[in-house]
Every structure is written in structure tokens, then in C-alpha cells.
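User: Sequence recovery, please. Input:
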């Protein structure tokens, strides 16, 4: 699998289990990329919904994607702290200059004090039935919610104390480099 390069601008494409596009983030800058994970950042990027509506993100965010984990994490940098929006999803693939994954509706919102709440369980149940998610997918997703909550409690990955500082600094440096080119 090809991987994006540091400094490259990529799109993020979210799909539903039935293959239909769900949402597209127009521009995310790659801060780090390995064969297994990608860390990116964006600020006030255009987002297009499946129905054609568009909106701009309100704050800078650091994104975390992995090829083996069934979740991705958006770290939103707000004035009162970092909020995390975690999508329970398929592992990502990089294809045609885009990060692509299947969004499975379930989300975990994490607050600056590291308390969290699981969202959209009713939407998940509705789509699980409508799109006939296989039992194995249901089991994988539920196991990955537990894994994600473990990461939150243990302050692993994007939840680690220095993660945001390191990647925000890297994002500012990359933006300076891009502006000088």
C-alpha cells in the first residue's frame, strides 16, 4: 500500500458500510506517515456531506488513523482544551491521494478532563439492521470500543499528555515551510 508523505495535502473520505460516501474533508496536511498509521492536521477545512451540504471546521485539529485499528481520532484544539471525537470505523486505506475508511456510526466523545461518552448507539443499531452488518463486524466494533476506552483511561496514543503539543508544533512548522515555498 502506498503511504502519504510528510507535508502532503490529502483528502479524508468517510464511507458507509453500503459503499456510499458519507463525508469528505477537503484538505488535511500529513504530519507523519508510516505503513501502519498517519497523523494529520487541518484548520478551517471544507467538509462536504453526502447530500452536498458544505461547512468549514471551526478549529484546528490533529487526526490519527491506523491500518489495524477499527477507530480513528480527531483531536479538536479549542480555547478551553482539547476535545476528542473518535469514530468507530474500519481501518483506513490510502488511495488516490485520500485517506478512506468506513464509518460505523458509533462515536466516542472525550472531554478535556478525559471523561467520555459513547454516542449514536441508536443510529448504529438502525444501520446494522438496514445494511446487514455481519456478526463478525459487530463483534470487532464492540471490541474496538473497549480498546479505545482503554486507550483513553491509560492516556495512550493521541490521549497521551504530550501528543497534542508535539503534533501542533509540527503542524505550525509544516505550515511555515509550505508558506515559504
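Assistant: Recovered sequence (181 residues):
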Amino acid at each position: 500500500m502506498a503511504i502519504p508523505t510528510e507535508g502532503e495535502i490529502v483528502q479524508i473520505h468517510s464511507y458507509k458500510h453500503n459503499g456510499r460516501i458519507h463525508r469528505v474533508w477537503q484538505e488535511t496536511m500529513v504530519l507523519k506517515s508510516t505503513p501502519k498509521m498517519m497523523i494529520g492536521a487541518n484548520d478551517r477545512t471544507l467538509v462536504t456531506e453526502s447530500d452536498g451540504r458544505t461547512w468549514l471546521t471551526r478549529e484546528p485539529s490533529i487526526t490519527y488513523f491506523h491500518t489495524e485499528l477499527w477507530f480513528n481520532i480527531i483531536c479538536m484544539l479549542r480555547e478551553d482544551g482539547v476535545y476528542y471525537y473518535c469514530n468507530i470505523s474500519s481501518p483506513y486505506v490510502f488511495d488516490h491521494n485520500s485517506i478512506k475508511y468506513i464509518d460505523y456510526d458509533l462515536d466516542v466523545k472525550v472531554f478535556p478532563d478525559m471523561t467520555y461518552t459513547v454516542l449514536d448507539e441508536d443510529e448504529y443499531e438502525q444501520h446494522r439492521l438496514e445494511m446487514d452488518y455481519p456478526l463478525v463486524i459487530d463483534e470487532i466494533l464492540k471490541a474496538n470500543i473497549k480498546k479505545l476506552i482503554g486507550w483513553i483511561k491509560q492516556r495512550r496514543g493521541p490521549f497521551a499528555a504530550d501528543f497534542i503539543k508535539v503534533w501542533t508544533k509540527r503542524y505550525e512548522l509544516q505550515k511555515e515551510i509550505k508558506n515559504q515555498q
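The chain is about 25% helix and 40% strand.
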